[in-house]
């Protein structure tokens, strides 16, 4: 596909991509202490990131956005779409624009999808060959307890967004993420191609929700806390990323926020990059 022609055919998506790149670069520069000079009471880098964030929000509010491929509708929930995009990027200090309360609510909003995905995992073992089913069941045995604890802690943080409750939430999301990553590696060892794909799809749905919640928790955590969380993540995202379908993840994000599929694809890609940069 001609990239120049594609820009003209999809100007909104192209502009969103440029703004996302500016926000991402600004976040990296800020984390490295690069300021490029001062601007008022802040720096040139943070000003550029703030302006890009504001423009991205205006772009997301465009009422003319079209339906996504595969029938996923574009609704008026674009404010939520912009929120998850910003939350899934490496946050800029002082530029969050969202209170801990709003992020906590977004985390809680993801928990029904998490519980549904875990329920699907619970029923998947019976659909596989006996030997594969036993391996799959063993690899996902801890999902129920870990996800239930995460849901409880997310609701606790929404009710009481304090540092101590956030610390518990940080620990639990990394714990569940590591369980999911380990299960993906185990499922990848299933020999039967059909069983393997079925298993990876089921676990991948859980991984998508867990990674979305992880990104949200990152956005309200200090640099030191994020570094501590990343240090606890022994199985890195880069190792399991080939086993998680990006299209499946984008469909889930698009459906959850009622946004175009292409926009969700950008969000998923940026979330993956943010997690890798943070050391997960």
Number of strands: 2
Strand content: under 5%
Report the average pLDDT across residues: 80
Strand order of the largest sheet: 1-2
Low-confidence stretches: 61-84, 86-98
Explain what this protein looks like in three dimensions.
This protein has 280 residues and is an all-alpha fold. It contains 13 helices and 2 strands. The protein has 2 domains: 98 residues, no CATH class; 146 residues, Four Helix Bundle (Hemerythrin (Met), subunit A) (Up-down Bundle). A two-stranded antiparallel sheet has the order 1-2. α4 packs across α9 and α5 packs antiparallel against α9. It is globular, with a radius of gyration of 19 Å. The two termini are 33 Å apart. About 13% of the residues have low confidence.
Feature tags:
single chain, mainly alpha, Four Helix Bundle (Hemerythrin (Met), subunit A), two-stranded antiparallel ribbon, 1% strand
What secondary-structure arrangement, pairings included, does this model have?
Elements: H1 3-9, H2 11-31, E1 38-39, E2 42-43, H3 44-60, H4 78-88, H5 100-124, H6 130-139, H7 143-159, H8 163-187, H9 193-219, H10 223-232, H11 237-240, H12 246-257, H13 261-278
Antiparallel strand pairs: 1-2
């Amino acid at each position: 596909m001609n990239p120049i022609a594609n820009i003209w055919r999809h100007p909104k998506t192209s502009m969103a991509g440029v703004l996302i790149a500016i926000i991402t670069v600004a976040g990296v520069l800020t984390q490295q202490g690069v300021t490029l000079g001062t601007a008022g009471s802040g720096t040139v880098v943070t000003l550029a990131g703030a302006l890009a964030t504001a423009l991205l929000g205006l772009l997301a509010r465009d009422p003319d956005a079209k339906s996504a491929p595969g029938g996923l509708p574009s609704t008026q929930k674009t404010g939520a779409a912009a929120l998850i995009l910003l939350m899934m990027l490496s946050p800029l200090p002082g530029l969050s624009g969202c209170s801990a309360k709003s992020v906590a609510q977004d985390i809680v909003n993801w928990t029904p999808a998490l519980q549904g995905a875990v329920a699907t995992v619970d029923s998947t073992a019976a659909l596989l060959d006996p030997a594969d089913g036993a391996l799959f069941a063993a690899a996902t045995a801890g999902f129920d307890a870990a996800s239930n604890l995460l849901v409880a802690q997310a609701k606790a943080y929404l009710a009481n967004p304090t540092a101590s409750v956030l610390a518990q939430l940080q620990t639990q999301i990394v714990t569940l993420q590591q369980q999911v990553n380990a299960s993906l590696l185990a499922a990848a060892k299933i020999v039967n191609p059909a069983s393997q794909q079925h298993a990876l799809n089921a676990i991948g749905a859980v991984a998508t929700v867990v990674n979305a919640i992880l990104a949200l928790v990152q956005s309200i955590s200090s640099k030191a806390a994020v570094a501590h969380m990343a240090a606890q993540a022994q199985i890195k995202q880069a190792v399991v990323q080939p086993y998680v379908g990006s299209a499946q993840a984008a469909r889930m994000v698009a459906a959850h926020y009622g946004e175009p599929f292409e926009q969700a694809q950008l969000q998923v890609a940026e979330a993956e990059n943010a997690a890798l940069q943070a050391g997960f």
